[in-house]
C-alpha cells in the first residue's frame, strides 16, 4: 500500500486542514470554509444562540445541535447523525478498507481525520485548548467532554431516572447496571436497586450508614 505523507497542515487526497478550527476539507472547498471565520461573512444568525454562519446550509446544520434532529441514518445499523459527512465517516466502520497509512509507524486508518489525529500522537500536537485551564487535547470532542468538568454540564440523561452524566458511555453503563431488569439487590431503606452487591454496599455506606443487613430479592 502506498504510504501517505502527513503533516500538521495537509493530509492526503488533496485535503487541507483549516489553521483556525483544524477541520479537514477538500482543497476546492477550503476557500468557502474560510468565509465562516470572517466576521463580515456570516450573515445567517442562529435563533437559539449567538452562532452566525456564512452559508444558510451551514446554519441549518448548526441548528440541529439545538433540535437534536439527525436525518442521516445508516442502512446497516441504528446509527443516526446530524450531518452527511458524519454518516460518510461512520459507513467506513462497516468495511475493512483502511486507505490512510501513517508514515511514522505504519498504522492504517479508515479516514483522513483519523490519520491526522493519530499522527498528532507522534508529534505531541494538541491544538484544542481549554479556556479554563492548561488542558489541551488532540480531538475537539475530548475537549468538549473536559470542559464539562468546569461547567458542570451533564447533557446525557438516563431515560429511566434522574441520573445524568457528562458522557454518553457513562449513562449506558448506568442503565445496564441499574435498569437491566436483573436488579436483585434492594435497599431496605429506599427504592434504590441494582444488580451488583458492591453497588448496594456503596449506596448503603453513602446514604444509610446505620444499615448493616443487605436485603436480596428472592
From TrEMBL:
GO molecular function: DNA binding; zinc ion binding
InterPro entries assigned: Zinc_finger, Znf_C2H2_sf, Znf_C2H2_type
GO CC term (a single one): nucleus
Annotated compartments: Nucleus
Key word Transmembrane present: no
Pfam families referenced in this protein's UniProt entry, alphabetically: zf-C2H2, zf-H2C2_5
GO BP of this protein: regulation of gene expression
Alphabetically ordered keywords of this record: DNA-binding, Metal-binding, Nucleus, Repeat, Transcription, Transcription regulation, Zinc, Zinc-finger
Domain C2H2-type span(s) in chain numbering: 44-71, 72-99, 100-127, 128-155, 156-184
SUPFAM superfamilies linked to this entry: beta-beta-alpha zinc fingers
Family: Belongs to the krueppel C2H2-type zinc-finger protein family.
Protein name: C2H2-type domain-containing protein
